[in-house]
Amino acid sequence: MVRIAMECEKRSGGDKTQVMEEPIWTMFCNGKKSGFGVKREPTEEDLRVMRTLHVVSMGAGVIPEEEEEVVHPEGELAYMRAHFERVVGSRDSETYYMMNPDGNSGPELSLFFVRV
């Protein structure tokens, strides 16, 4: 099981920003600090990937890179698409659990978004 926690700082003054609208995050993977995340607008490459995956409902694989555009040094992009259950813990926390399609075991991936 993989647990990814995205943490951001609370702002003073009783800010009404929803937790998923926060612009800057610190990322932890299975308890170890792994990097940072920044909210941004999607690029043309992001939109191309989403259009490609639009017909995929569930699964994992690799999208080969188009020959004209070499964006990824490996020449391909790995993806994972699944059903997630959303749980709102409070105004300062949301969790997404990737649900196993067979329903026999718990989530294999958990994403936690928390303001601390």
TrEMBL record:
PANTHER family: EXPRESSED PROTEIN, PROTEIN MIZU-KUSSEI 1. This is Protein MIZU-KUSSEI 1-like. GO terms for biological process: hydrotropism. NCBIfam families: A_thal_3588 (TIGR01570). Transmembrane segments: none annotated. InterPro entries: MIZ1-like_pln. Pfam families: DUF617.
